[in-house]
């Protein structure tokens, strides 16, 4: 009877070893402006690349730009972005230390009359756009990545990690970078019941508090030791 060789698990889309080359985030952004790796560029208004300090210790990865982001050309400027900013502040995380980006850089939508409704990117679109996400992470070398929602988690961890099971925990990517798993802030906006929405927001803030704790622990480890007489 022939012996089957077990298949090696596929690496996560962002860590396949294939990535764009750029000397800086700004240079990478300029390259991405001409991206045609998937068809989403055809209908989107413009590319929405990541933004933040060039050596940000924290990288927040969402799913894709929404309608507001597509028009502005900037990530997380719509309702979900404003909620994220509020929750980061409540959790004690300095927003100025964060680089924000998305797994997919073009807005995918369905038209309903004059409205453009969000449509979830498929696996192929996520895999092709991971080319840019991988390069962002390579250049930034963050101390912590935060996966906001299932699409970001798939781009960064593949199918080996589930959102529900690992939410609120810090796992490691295949390149060794710690990664915090949590929901996307847009999830909170879809909850209609007020009490449920408040509880979900508090749980999200508690997840983000792990970012502040992680950074604080790092500062303590790197602080110079003072001799005690």
Automatic annotation (TrEMBL):
Gene Ontology biological process: DNA repair
Pfam families per record: UDG (PF03167)
Keyword Nucleotidyltransferase listed: yes
Gene3D superfamilies listed in its UniProt record: Uracil-DNA glycosylase-like domain (3.40.470.10)
Top-level taxon of the source organism: Bacteria
Organism: Rhizobium giardinii
NCBIfam families named in the record: UDG_fam4, UDG_fam_dom
Keyword set, alphabetical order: 4Fe-4S, DNA damage, DNA repair, Hydrolase, Iron, Iron-sulfur, Metal-binding, Nucleotidyltransferase, Transferase
Domain Uracil-DNA glycosylase-like: 49-209
Family: Belongs to the uracil-DNA glycosylase (UDG) superfamily. Type 4 (UDGa) family.
SMART domains: UDG, UreE_C
UniProt-recorded name of the protein: Type-4 uracil-DNA glycosylase
Molecular function in Gene Ontology: 4 iron, 4 sulfur cluster binding; deaminated base DNA N-glycosylase activity; metal ion binding; nucleotidyltransferase activity
Transmembrane segments annotated in the record for this chain: none
